[in-house]
Amino acid sequence: MRKNYKEAEYKHNVKAPVNISKISQRGIIIRVLVLILFLGIFITAAVIINRPDPTDVPSSASRFVFVPARVTDVLYDDAEPDYVRSEGRRLGKQELKIEILGGVHKGEILQLTNYLSALANVDVHTGDRIIVRIDTNEKGILYAVMYNYDRSMVLGVFILVFMLLLVAIGGKKGAKALLGLIFTLVCIWFILMPLMMRGFNSILITSVIAVVTTTVSLLLLDGFTRKAVSAVLGCTAGVAAAGIIAALVGYLTPFNGFNMSDAESLILNVTDKGMKISGLLVSGVLIAALGAVMDVAMSIASSVNELYMLNHDLSLGKLFVSGMNIGRDAMGTMANTLILAFVGSSLNTLILTRAYDIPFIQLINSDYIGVEVIQGVAGSIGIILTVPLVAFISSWLMTRRN
Prior knowledge:
The protein is α+β, with helices and mostly antiparallel strands. The chain is 64% helix and 13% strand. It is built from twelve helices and six strands. The model is unreliable at 5-20 (pLDDT under 50).
């Protein structure tokens, strides 16, 4: 009797075996449902935000009609190479016969006068594809104006090669990274910019978009793991630090969106819809720093995770020191990357300042250089602060039992 009692007690205390496949399937189903819910909310928000306002007056630019065309014949060409000012580019005039390849006037043949200057230099031959603007004169006669080369095919192939290389070399990780990039660009174009144009606080909206895109990109890349959570938290903190520093320096200098390029055009075309320009400087810093900070955050979190997987006896302190050592190497290269990216985008202006021999005190106090310095340095400081933040967060999360 006693033996039977013990056996019954033992069977009662022993837990039933866990069906791991059922748990895994349940987890996948939950993730898919959450993803569908999130995509539904996101698409609905994007549609509502981008819904046209019936009171808006179409801009003059939106009324222009641009269509692809092909040069069927060069009727006249007096262009000659200019080696004095244009490095051999041909300057002069061309009379072209073109065939419209798209739009309501597809198939029509028009004649076009193409003026070749040092800057506007669309030098074409028979068979070349171009983009033209279609318009009518005061007599209602249809005519075409040269716009540019048709680069659509080349750029499309170029982007496709990038995508294929990312997926081919990166595998599933590369495909997930591509989805994260597409999601980020869609958020910026269809969510961030329309909300800015409608008068929402640009710094607040940019911060929210930065957090959302960072979270989606990193979780999509690595799943809901401690490594991904560490990278998300560290990246968010680093980008926030860059924005706070940019806002502080902008307040002290003072600098804001009105000091940036194209501010005058924004005042004339967008402010009547409620857009606030003053916060665009900080918003630009947040967006510019996001990619580099995300890279550093994921690199450190991934390294700390690999170290802990190889040796579970490593303490929080040892993991933190290792993360800092790895982060110091990434810190220097990423800071250089961000600074050089700003320099590269402003190379023509910097060369022009050297050519004019502008005094240093005038140069450093100009709006353009001041804005570039704030954006580059604030982003780099965000990268630097990301290193200890991610190193500590990832070390703390890895060594936690739960």
